[in-house]
Amino acid sequence: MERFIGKYASCLYATLRIIAGLMFAFHGSQKLFAWPGGNAPVPLGSLMGFAGLVELIGGLLIAFGFLTSYAAFIASGQMAVAYFKAHAPQGALPILNRGELAVVYCFLFLYIAAQGSGPWSLDATMRRKPVER
């Protein structure tokens, strides 16, 4: 399988980064704007408002591949805090305390922070040197 799909690893990583970033940004837009399909917006000065800002801005930075490692590291930390603050008090196992998404996001963003932006990113575009004539 590695011989078949391995040659697409960098493109698949970029796709993973983009989709995960956009999904994370949607969580933030639900908190801040009640869109798509959220409840009433949360106050910006609240803990949930701050979480919404991190999710929206961090998710877009990750999706566009700009300052990706920093944004992903912060997002990973936020998801760790979210798990231990909101889910762990309900029980130890993520599948039982409904914290599995927070755990998956935490480790996914930690991986993205370590891996960097990869291809199809603003970071990669800005690193390219102009061709000298």
Describe this structure in words.
The protein has 133 residues and is mostly helical. It has one domain. Helix content is 70%, strand content 0%. The protein has helices at residues 2-5, 9-33, 47-64, 68-87, 94-97, 100-115, 122-127. α2 (9-33) packs antiparallel against α3, α3 (47-64) runs antiparallel to α4 (68-87) and α4 (68-87) runs antiparallel to α6. The longest helix is centred in the first third of the chain and has 25 residues, at 9-33. The model has no long low-confidence stretch (mean pLDDT 94).
Which helices and strands appear, and what pairs or packs with what?
Blueprint: H1 2-5, H2 9-33, H3 47-64, H4 68-87, H5 94-97, H6 100-115, H7 122-127
Helix pairs in contact: 2-3, 3-4, 4-6
Can you describe this structure in just a few lines?
The chain contains 7 helices and no strands.
